[in-house]
Design brief:
There is one protein chain. The chain is of the alpha+beta class. The chain has one domain. Helix content is 69%, strand content 14%. It has two helices and two strands; from the N terminus they run ββαα. The chain has a two-stranded antiparallel ribbon. The radius of gyration is 24 Å and the shape is elongated.
Length: 101
């Protein structure tokens, strides 16, 4: 059975939006809350006046977080791959030593 498309209403930066989505309403509302938090953080700097500029700064901040998370994930994947290779080499050496010994 496929996902059910539904309408979810959220408010971002005072703008009411009705979104059609297959995602759960709670998830969409959590995303909206997260964006609102980033907009409020941008607003707290006191330097930006327009809602559009605040939204753009929030989007840039979220994009930076995403980019950093991707870099962290790639680094972790490299570390796991390297450690896995070391473990496999160790196991191969142990197997070889036990078969010749």
């Amino acid at each position: 059975m496929g996902a059910v498309s539904r309408s979810v209403k959220v408010s971002i930066a005072g703008q009411k939006l009705s979104l059609r989505t297959d995602a759960k309403p709670r998830y969409i509302k959590e995303l909206a809350d997260y964006v609102n938090t980033k907009i409020e953080q941008a607003k707290a700097s006191g330097k930006i006046a327009t809602t559009q500029a605040l939204a753009l700064l929030a989007a840039l901040t979220i994009a930076d977080e995403l980019h950093q998370a991707r870099e962290d994930m790639e680094k972790l994947e490299r570390q796991v791959r390297e450690r896995t290779q070391r473990i496999l080499r160790y196991l191969d050496a142990e197997e070889h030593a036990s078969s010749t010994g």
